[in-house]
Design a protein that fits this description.
This protein is of the alpha+beta class. Helix content is 47%, strand content 14%. Helix 1 crosses helix 4, helix 2 crosses helix 3 and helix 4 crosses helix 7. It is globular, with a radius of gyration of 17 Å. The structure holds protoporphyrin IX containing FE. Protoporphyrin IX containing FE binds next to helix 1, helix 4, helix 5, helix 6 and strand 2.
């Protein structure tokens, strides 16, 4: 996993669970510290041992924590890549182009980064379908990133996982839908 993600792990634990939780986690023999250097990659095992340690200490499932971390890291990912994201895009536009524009450029410009190959299709104006089949099998992290991107743009997105690698499927399918807009105070809808 890349250092730009690893760096945020410490910030996430510290801001959501406190310094003590981070110290406790890092002093656990089985938790490997994750590299602080944002421009370098570090072994996936370090990321996973950190998450497993967090799961034991915080008494939450690894999946739940991956989703929470995805929500947290989304803003940093967007802000680190603003040159790739036109100001006119909505959250759903960013998600639609997450691979064709964003992950593709991240892969090209940073040889150490290996974001997953996801397939994003705009099925309707208000919906994107994502196919995810990374060998890391962390669709929960992807779900969190999606919700976090929505929050960053002030848009509520609903994410439904219709099939999942954790249930024996060869890939995960995520359906991301813009939540129905409620009529504003000046709506003329009868
Ligand atoms: C602004 C949008 C996004 C940016 C800038 C971004 C960038 C990145 C970067 C830099 C990584 C780390 C790669 C590495 O560790 O080598 C990553 C990983 C990942 N991204 Fe994205 N991403 C974005 C949107 C998304 C979306 C919408 C999804 C939805 C599924 C997603 C799913 C993932 C997953 C699951 C990983 C973990 C690695 C894996 O599963 O193999 N990303 N992304």
């Amino acid at each position: 996993m890349h250092g730009c993600v690893g760096y945020e792990l410490y910030e996430w634990i510290r801001s959501q669970y406190g310094d003590l939780a981070l110290l406790q986690l890092l002093s656990t023999a089985s938790t490997k510290p994750v590299g602080f250097v944002t421009m370098m990659a570090y072994p996936d095992e370090d990321f996973f041992s950190f998450m497993d340690g967090a799961s034991r200490i915080l008494k939450k499932t690894r999946g739940r924590l991956l989703e929470e971390f995805g929500m947290f890291v989304a803003a940093a990912l967007v802000e680190a890549h603003t040159e790739l994201i036109p100001a006119s895009w909505s959250a759903l536009d960013v998600i639609e182009h997450a691979d064709s524009t964003i992950h593709t450029v991240v892969r090209r410009e940073n040889k150490d980064a290996s974001p997953p190959y996801i397939r994003c299709t705009r099925t309707t104006a208000g919906e994107v379908k994502i196919i995810y089949d990374s060998p890391r099998k962390i669709c929960e992290f992807g779900k969190g990133i999606i919700i976090g991107i929505g929050r960053y743009y002030g848009e509520r997105l609903d994410v439904r996982e219709t099939i999942c690698m954790h249930h024996g499927h060869p890939q995960c399918e995520l359906i991301v839908a813009a939540a129905a807009m409620s009529p504003g105070p000046f709506s003329h809808t009868p």
